[in-house]
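4.2 Preliminary Data

To establish feasibility before requesting continued support, the project team ran the inverse folding procedure on a target of 108 residues. The structure was first converted into the token representation described in Section 3, and no sequence information of any kind was made available to the design step. The complete token record follows.
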């Protein structure tokens, strides 16, 4: 009888793990999309993060696809001059790290 309970618990844990894994978005793909919506890596001059907000300084704000950024999960976007302040939640730091590691280093 104890073995049946152990088997049931193991199966439930495996199902729960599979569900969590399927619901987790691939961050690298999402960040690639976000960079693309911001006009590409050539359009990004600087990125600063403050908690859940990401301030992106751009060469040309007019080529940014704000609707697509909203659909990607941004909670809000504010445009000031050549900067966008994007509320991304917990993904803000991930975007900063991604841009620092993969984009700004390649410009040097």
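Position-by-position output of the design step:
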């Amino acid at each position: 009888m104890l073995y049946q309970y152990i088997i049931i618990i193991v199966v439930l844990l495996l199902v729960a793990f599979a569900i969590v894994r399927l619901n987790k978005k691939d961050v690298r793909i999402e960040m690639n999309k976000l960079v693309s919506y911001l006009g590409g890596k050539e359009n990004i001059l600087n990125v600063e993060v403050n908690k859940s907000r990401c301030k992106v300084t751009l060469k040309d704000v007019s080529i940014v696809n704000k609707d697509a950024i909203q659909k990607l999960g941004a909670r809000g976007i504010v445009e000031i001059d050549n900067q966008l302040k994007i509320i991304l939640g917990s993904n803000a730091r991930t975007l900063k790290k991604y841009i620092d590691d993969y984009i700004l280093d390649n410009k040097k």
